[in-house]
Every structure is written in C-alpha cells, then in structure tokens.
C-alpha cells in the first residue's frame, strides 16, 4: 500500500500571494520525504497551471515535484486530466468547434501523460464527472457538455496510448458510501469495461467532515469496485472539524477525527486491491480546508507547527 500526500503549491496559495510552500519551506519538504512513499500534485498538474495559454505548456511546477519524488524513491499519482474546475479561461470561454475541443484534450493528454511516461504510476484521468445526484456534470464541464461520457472513454484511451503502463482512474468526492453518486460510477465502470476501455481504478477522495456521519459502508463500497476487476484508492483524505475563531477544535471533535482517520485508513487496508492512500496535505499550515469550508479546519495529521496530532498516531497504527 503506497501512502501518499498531496504536495502544496499553486491553487489557493498562488491566488493569495503566499510563497509556494513546496519551494519555500525546508521543514515541509523534509516531512514529505520522510513520511510518505507516494506524492501527488495538489494543483501543479491542473490545466490552469500546465496550460496557461493555448500555445504553451508549462511544466516547471509539476517537474519539481516529480524530481523530488524520484530523489526520495517515491511514486507519483497524476492529478488530473479532465475536470470541470481550475481550467484556464481561454479554454472555457473560447469559441471552439467540437473537433477543436476534442483535439485540445487529446493533445493535452498525449503531451502531459507522454512527458511523464513511466514516471507517473496512477493517473486520475477524469475527476468529478458526476454531481451528488449521480448526474453527469454537463453544465460545468466543457468536455462533458459536448461529448458526454464518450469523452471519458476517449480520455482513458488517449492516456493509455501515451503510457500503456499507467494505471488509469476515475476519481470523485462524496462517493465513499454506496449511493446515487457512487452508483453512477459503478454503472459507468461496468459500461466502460464491457467496451474494453482501459479503465483500471476508482478513486474515492475522502474529504470527510466530523459534522457528517462516517461512511460506514466505505469498505463494502470499495469492494464492489474491486469485484469488477478494478483497483481502488483513497486519494484525498482529510477530516475537517468545526473550529473556533483561533482555528481550534474541541475535544469531542478531535476524538471523532481520530476515529474517522482510523476507520478510513482501516477500510483501505482491509481491501486487498486498495493500492494507494493519499492524504490531502500533511500539516494544517498548508491545507485547503479553512479557505474552502467556513468554520471548519484542523483537518490534517500535523498541526501548523508540524507537531503530530492524535490523528497522526491513528493513521500510523491503522496502516
Ligand atoms: C483543491 C486544492 O487543494 C486547492 O489548493 C485548490 O485551490 C482547489 O483545489 N477535489 C480535488 C482537488 O480533486 O483537486 C481539490 O484540490 C480538492 C477537491
């Protein structure tokens, strides 16, 4: 089981003008090197960073993380190729024909997956293609809008052509439990596999909150996907808790958080073909949660000063 972390950089850091933590913080780099066997890019491989203009690919940010991983003997998960969010404006508001849109995606996948052939083990090829009701996100995603799930099949084929050894995933949040959204993936996975499309894995992000019940059927859900012949992964685990004005949680929520981490990790460990577990950050100093969820925070296993929280021990023990 690869145990990974998302490496901070770009995204809300870039927007807020903070220095990129990965480049600037030596202690942060040390923790990533020492504690994990896998890394993923929190933002650096997303379209808005790789493809700032139509004519230009920029790989500095992504390359730096991959070179770091290789120096430290870590594997890399690629995130992501086809998504509705963090796309450059030239793509989302450009006036392209269907053929041009298809060609843009094909070029993107061939270029990015091809560049890292043999160096990125897993790819989140398509991310968050269904909404919480299990309906395809045709309004938000410019590719799904035009081509529906056909473009997902094509994206998988193009990624497979560019790197036949890469393990290709569909990935989403709120699919920990069996329900409308994960059922949509289950049905799509069956269809794609029946058509011989190179789909190899299903990723459950695992953005959990102690304000919601723990997804008790997580293990059963993972298992139904492995029963289809896929591998599975928990790809973006964090457990956010309500916090006060100073960003501090109360003891009850800390206990809950420990329990959620233990059970989430335990579910992956219990499923034979759950091959990878990634935490969406390691220190609360660099977490997307406070900026995205009002009144919640403290979601990661190290506090802002890099001290281990009870959740750190829980994860270590559950592995
Ligand atoms: C988040 C990053 O953590 C932020 O830095 C960025 O500003 C927005 O995106 N699901 C995903 C991730 O698949 O790519 C998202 O990452 C979190 C939700």
UniProtKB/TrEMBL annotation:
<keyword id="KW-0858">Xylan degradation</keyword>
<keyword id="KW-0326">Glycosidase</keyword>
<dbReference type="GO" id="GO:0031176">
    <property type="term" value="F:endo-1,4-beta-xylanase activity"/>
</dbReference>
<keyword id="KW-0624">Polysaccharide degradation</keyword>
<keyword id="KW-0378">Hydrolase</keyword>
<keyword id="KW-0732">Signal</keyword>
<comment type="similarity">
    <text>Belongs to the glycosyl hydrolase 10 (cellulase F) family.</text>
</comment>
<dbReference type="GO" id="GO:0045493">
    <property type="term" value="P:xylan catabolic process"/>
</dbReference>
<feature type="domain" description="GH10">
    <location>
        <begin position="15"/>
        <end position="318"/>
    </location>
</feature>
<protein>
    <recommendedName>
        <fullName>Beta-xylanase</fullName>
        <ecNumber>3.2.1.8</ecNumber>
    </recommendedName>
</protein>
<feature type="active site" description="Nucleophile">
    <location>
        <position position="236"/>
    </location>
</feature>
<keyword id="KW-0119">Carbohydrate metabolism</keyword>
């Amino acid at each position: 089981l690869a145990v990974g972390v998302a490496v901070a950089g770009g995204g809300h850091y870039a927007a807020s003008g903070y220095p990129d933590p990965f480049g600037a913080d030596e202690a942060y780099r040390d923790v990533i090197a020492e504690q994990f066997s896998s890394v993923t890019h929190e933002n650096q491989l997303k379209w808005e960073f790789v493809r700032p203009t139509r004519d230009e690919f920029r790989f500095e940010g992504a390359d730096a993380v991959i070179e770091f991983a290789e120096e430290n003997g870590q594997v890399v998960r690629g995130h992501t190729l086809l998504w509705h969010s963090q796309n450059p404006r030239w793509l989302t508001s450009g006036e392209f024909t269907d053929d041009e849109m298809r060609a843009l995606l094909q070029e993107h996948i061939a270029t990015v997956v091809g560049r890292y052939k043999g160096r990125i083990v897993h790819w989140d090829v398509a991310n968050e293609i269904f909404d919480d009701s299990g309906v395809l996100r045709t309004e938000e995603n410019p590719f799904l809008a035009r081509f529906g799930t056909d473009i997902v099949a094509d994206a998988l084929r193009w990624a497979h052509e560019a790197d036949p050894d890469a393990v290709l995933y569909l990935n989403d949040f709120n699919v920990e439990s069996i329900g409308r959204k994960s059922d949509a993936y289950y049905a799509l996975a069956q269809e794609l596999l029946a058509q011989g499309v190179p789909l190899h894995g299903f990723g459950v992000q695992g953005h959990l909150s102690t304000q919601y019940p723990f997804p008790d059927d997580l293990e059963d859900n993972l298992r139904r996907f492995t029963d289809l012949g896929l591998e599975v992964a928990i790809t973006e685990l964090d457990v956010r808790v309500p916090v006060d004005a100073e960003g501090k949680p109360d003891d009850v929520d800390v206990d809950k958080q420990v329990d959620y981490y233990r059970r989430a990790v335990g579910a992956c460990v219990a499923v034979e073909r759950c091959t990878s577990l990634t935490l969406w950050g390691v220190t609360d100093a660099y977490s997307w949660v406070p900026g995205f969820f009002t009144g919640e925070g403290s979601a990661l296993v190290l506090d802002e000063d890099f001290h281990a929280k009870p959740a750190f021990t829980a994860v270590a023990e559950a592995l």
